[in-house]
Design a protein that fits this description.
By secondary structure, the chain is α/β, with parallel strands linked by helices. The protein folds into three domains: 5-253, Rossmann fold (3-Layer(aba) Sandwich); 354-432, Luciferase, domain 3 (Roll); 435-535, 2-Layer Sandwich (GMP Synthetase, Chain A, domain 3), CATH 3.30.300. Helices cover 32% and strands 26% of the residues. The protein contains 17 helices and 28 strands. The strands form six sheets. It has a 13-stranded mixed β-sheet, with helices on both faces. Strands 4-3-5-6-7 form a five-stranded parallel β-sheet, sandwiched between helices. Strand 12, helix 12 (275-291) and strand 13 form a beta-alpha-beta unit. Helix 4 (89-98) packs across helix 5 (111-117). The radius of gyration is 23 Å and the shape is globular. The mean pLDDT is 92.
Amino acid sequence: MDLNIATAWEAITDQIGDLPAISTFETSRTWEEFEKNSASLARTLSEKGLKRDSKVAFYCYNGPEYLEGQFAAFKIRAVPANVNYRYLDEELAYILNNADAEAILFDSSLSERVESVRGRCPKLKAFVRIGEGSEEDWIINYKEAISNEPLKRVERSGDDLWFLYTGGTTGSPKAVMWSHSGLIGGMGETFRSLGEKIPENPREAGDIAKRITHSGKEIRQLCAAPLMHGTSSLTALSTHTHGGLVATLSSRTFNPAELWEMVEKCRITMLTIVGDAFARPMIEELETSIENSTSWDISSLRLVMSSGVMFSAPLKERLLNMHNCTILDALGSSEGTGMGKQVTSRKRKDTGTARFYLGEHTRVITEDGQELEPGSKQIGKLALGYPLPVGYYKDPEKTEKTFPTINGRRWSIPGDWASVEKDGSITLLGRGSECINTGGEKVFPEEVEEALKINPAVIDCNVVGLPDDRWGEAVTAVVEIRSGETISELEILNDAKKRLAGYKVPKSVVFVEKLKRGPNGKSDYRWARDRAKKP
């Protein structure tokens, strides 16, 4: 497959140009507007000297500019690179230099940080600011950038790249290099669900989008999670590649009321969230609205897709009690998509937490390269055989370790441990980097967190290992309790003992007013460990 995403989107524009491509609560863009703005921005970047393989950093929040900026980069065969908008000076400078960024799209609220590091990033040529701000000779205003003459279309390749920076749990962030061919290869399940196959050329891309949209089957996706992380960004690429709508929230922090308003206004069919950190507030908001008889019309919503962080069983059940939809709990990582999934609905009552069925190209492999037998009670690492990234940017050693060749086949093995049950499903145990060694036994934090969060008094929790003279590491829980609840450490531990082997039960519980998570909902284990150490 040699199809390029920008070329596919151009063909889609030619077929369905008057249909919506992007929406927020305040505005929307048709495909023609999406393509025109991107082509104009592409010319602006080109005039600043960017070309094929130039890197464009995205240091901004969700919005039309993020999506148009990626399209613009694709048009000139440049490489988009995501940057966490919470990064401060040192982290920002590291990413920009590690990526060899030549341009940066940044939100006006982050201008001071960009200005503070620009002198340390010699390859930067273009600074495109989203939003209002003071006039500076080094800044290009986004509105001016998209007022340029549109750049003419060019020939492109499926080998062009897209960077997905992954923070990981150890070491500095690394860019996973995905080719356009690899990205499109990972869209197979989406196209199959729409009754189509993956397009192999621009003409097919346009024709397929026309068929899907004219029959009213297209996905209308609301990215509740940040586009700077894989859960929303990868699925948004897939939605646009079949002609669907990508919508984003306007609030800088997650607003569940705005989410439901957008579902009603844009007739959203698919929500993209990251586990309980998003699911709990949106479910509570929906419950409150129903109690107050002020609920929104969410009848269009067919699919709630979550990935990256635990989506616990009790929350899935609460959502399904209110709305008849399908919940797709997807298992994947920056280094590989489609590793596994759990599908839950009113008809399919499997609402267990962290239980997945493997994808077509996924296996669980032991450290000596053998595939685990179902029911063996052994543990191994998840390994994905297709589609695969090119590797990590400027890190051949890490690339070789994460993408090894085993028995003649290249695999992606990011480090997630799992066991295989008799029925072929897997129980996800988590990353080895956070594994706790207590008394010679391995304890995976996610498994303990799952057991703790079944307790209705527990809103959120993280589990870490603290140095201990007797056990080596003591399993320790950092727990946020539901407002108005009163529960003791002993009650939490006794409840956990009903679901966990004795050595997995935390030795102690540290209560916090609010558990800290990243904007993508992922655990901040460093913070949890530091908090647990405090007397």
